[in-house]
Write a structure and sequence with these properties.
The chain has 8 helices and 7 strands; from the N terminus they run βααββββββαααααα. By secondary structure, the chain is an alpha+beta fold. The protein has a domain of 182 residues: Roll (SH3 type barrels). A hairpin with a 5-residue loop joins strand 3 and strand 4.
Length: 320
């Protein structure tokens, strides 16, 4: 099964993982001796934690080794990872981790062969002389009464040496190396509510602006001119004077024509811009206050004459 670095599997693991960032946690062996620092975490294709990559150097980068997560105990309060049943000398003899692409079944078997109990190690594991010369990792691990009783019962039965096959191997075959047991990795979540202020834009009204046509009757005065014919009959001053022969001509049907004109009123309509109406909006700001009841969980510790050391890092109550 392929292994991936935690950040390659989930670039946002720091936001989703409840333990925060594991990189940089100090790694301690039995006897409270610091042996290195967690430089990265390896997970399988389903995101299950498999190994801590431990840098054994202090001032500069040194040798890197793999620590199965099941052989660790994480203390978030102290920012530490404890390697269960390991000494500094044993850590120095672990197979070196140099490249993720070089991790295959044989390499993992070499690592697992060091961490497995001596009675259950597979004969397929080829460990170096330096690893064989060192004591098993379990040699320095504290054993409780129940464990001693279990070991006594196992001693009464013939030891069964399991076999491992590269084609059928599953991490569950080494549950003690990869399972995060509740005793060493238990977490109690304390929840608290906080106010999250958001705004949403809602329609509060509507203004419709249109126009309509009104009619009215207008009156306009237009001065016009009209011609008329005036006929005057007057007696000339030489009335009664005789005219020369042939001067008087008598013609019948003689007519004088005079054209008469008058003006008529002609009214037309034309449209013009009377005024403009400009429509715009402005934003009025104001602050509104709302109140809600917030809940917060607090830790209750009930002990019976047992000293408790609280190393938790509490957040201020007013942080929202």
């Amino acid at each position: 099964m392929a292994l991936l670095k935690l950040e390659d599997f989930d670039p946002n693991y720091r936001d989703t993982f409840e333990g925060g960032d594991l990189k940089g946690l100090s790694v301690y062996a039995e006897g409270d001796e610091k042996i290195g620092t967690v430089s990265d975490v390896l997970v399988d294709e389903q995101g299950n934690f498999r190994y801590f990559i431990v840098d054994l150097g202090f001032w500069i980068f040194g040798k890197k080794v793999l620590l199965p997560v099941g052989r660790s105990r994480i203390d978030y309060g102290a920012d530490r990872v404890y390697a269960i049943g390991m000494t500094r000398e044993q850590a120095d003899h672990l197979p070196e981790f140099s490249n993720l692409e070089k991790i295959d079944y044989d390499y993992e078997e070499q690592v697992r062969g060091v961490y497995r109990p001596a009675a259950t190690r597979s004969t397929m594991v080829d460990t170096s002389a330096s690893l064989e010369s060192s004591a098993p990792l379990e040699a320095s691990a504290p054993l409780d009464t129940a464990s001693m009783a279990g070991m006594s019962a196992m001693a009464a039965q013939p030891a069964v040496t399991p076999t491992y096959n590269r084609d059928t191997y599953d991490y569950q075959q080494d549950a003690s190396l990869y399972d995060l047991d509740e005793q060493n990795h238990q977490t109690l979540k304390l929840y608290q509510e906080r106010l999250v202020a958001n705004k949403q834009r809602v329609k509060s009204g509507e203004v419709a602006i249109g126009k309509h046509v009104e009619t009215e009757t207008a009156t306009v005065a237009v001065p016009v001119e009209k011609e008329r014919v005036i006929i005057e009959r007057v007696t000339p001053a030489d009335a009664g004077r005789a005219v020369r022969p042939g001067e008087a001509t008598f013609r019948e049907g003689e007519v004088a024509h005079v054209e008469i004109y008058e003006e008529q009123a002609s009214v037309q309509k034309e449209a013009f811009v009377r005024e403009e109406v400009r429509v715009s909006k402005e934003v009025e700001q104001k602050t509104v206050e709302t109140q809600e009841t917030l809940r917060r969980e607090e830790l209750d510790v009930n002990t019976t004459d047992t000293p408790i050391v609280d190393t938790s890092k509490r957040l201020p109550n007013d942080r929202i």
